[in-house]
């Protein structure tokens, strides 16, 4: 971590913070706290400007071309599962989905809109080793049979792609943030909405939650949400199976089986 010492100086205490991509660290000097990351996406600056992630303090380029970003280190907590029914979650997600600045930046970074036909093909490829699994076979049949129905034109927006409760932070000052944007895509907003409603919000509360988001619960939206949740669930299940991550695989197997029962595709 010599490069961090060179940037910050010896008076900073630096600890690894994990992270799926790049290198992430916590740094503290007296009362000042920073979250540092190497090679974050340029998308981070727009997210910070929109108040969606903790404030970006500075950006520095290293001699080797790598870029280091420093964000305000938030004292606070991750949301719990039952916090996800909050109108604030719905409103922040709505702000994200309706942001033209976020959409324009992702497009400038080369992100092309994701279409259901491409996602269906991805699911088929990702699950081809598990064709004898009844959950996999039923899911692929469902996705293939309905892909044209959800393919109908829907305005594509910036979607986070992994809106589980661990990625939502509430600061000590009651500021709500959505972090970990490495998997951001341009897609149907039902991709994010479906995950939250199916995972966290009782069905009888969907209409109220969506009202805070600014949308009505229509048969079309329901159809699209179900399609995307089945897609995400079957792909996640086989991904963890391939990595021998039994606990995570079991989690997604339960979610997928519950969905397919609700859709009356299995008993």
Can you give a write-up of this model?
- There is one protein chain.
- With 267 residues, this protein is an alpha+beta fold.
- It has 2 domains: 2-73, Phosphorylase Kinase, domain 1 (2-Layer Sandwich); 78-262, Aminoglycoside 3'-phosphotransferase, Chain: A, domain 2 (Alpha-Beta Complex).
- The protein is built from 10 helices and 10 strands.
- It has helices at 2-8, 43-49, 87-97, 100-108, 116-126, 134-151, 190-200, 206-213, 219-242, 246-262; strands spanning 13-18, 23-29, 32-38, 56-61, 67-72, 76-78, 157-159, 168-171, 176-178, 185-187.
- A 5-stranded antiparallel beta sheet has the order 1-2-3-5-4, covered by helices on one side.
- A hairpin with a 4-residue loop joins β1 (13-18) and β2 (23-29).
- α3 (87-97) crosses α8 (206-213) and α5 (116-126) runs parallel beside α9 (219-242).
- The longest helix has 24 residues, at 219-242.
- The radius of gyration is 20 Å and the shape is globular.
- The model has no long low-confidence stretch (mean pLDDT 90).
């Amino acid at each position: 971590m010599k490069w961090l010492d060179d940037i910050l100086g010896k008076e900073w205490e630096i600890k690894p913070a994990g992270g799926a991509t790049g290198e992430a660290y916590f740094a503290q000097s007296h009362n000042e706290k920073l979250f540092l990351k190497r090679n974050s996406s340029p998308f981070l600056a727009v997210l910070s400007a929109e108040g969606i992630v903790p404030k970006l303090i500075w950006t520095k380029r290293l001699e080797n071309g790598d870029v280091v970003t420093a964000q305000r280190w938030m004292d606070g907590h991750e949301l719990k599962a039952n916090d996800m029914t909050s109108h604030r979650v719905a409103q922040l997600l709505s702000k994200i989905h309706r942001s033209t600045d976020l959409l324009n930046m992702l497009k400038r970074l080369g992100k092309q809109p994701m279409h259901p036909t491409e996602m269906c093909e991805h699911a088929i490829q990702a699950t081809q080793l598990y064709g004898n699994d009844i959950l996999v076979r039923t899911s692929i049949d469902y996705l293939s049979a309905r892909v044209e129905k959800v393919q109908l034109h829907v305005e594509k927006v910036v979607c986070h792609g992994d809106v589980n409760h661990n990625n939502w932070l509430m600061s000590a000052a009651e500021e709500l943030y959505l972090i970990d944007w490495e998997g951001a895509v341009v897609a149907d907003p039902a991709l994010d909405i479906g995950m939250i409603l199916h995972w966290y919000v009782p069905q009888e509360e969907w209409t109220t939650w969506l009202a805070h988001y600014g949308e009505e619960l229509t048969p079309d939206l329901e159809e699209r949400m179900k399609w995307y949740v089945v897609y995400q669930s079957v792909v996640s299940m086989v991904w963890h199976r391939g990595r021998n991550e039994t606990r995570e695989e079991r989690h997604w197997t339960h979610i997928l089986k519950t969905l397919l029962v609700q859709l009356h595709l299995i008993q």
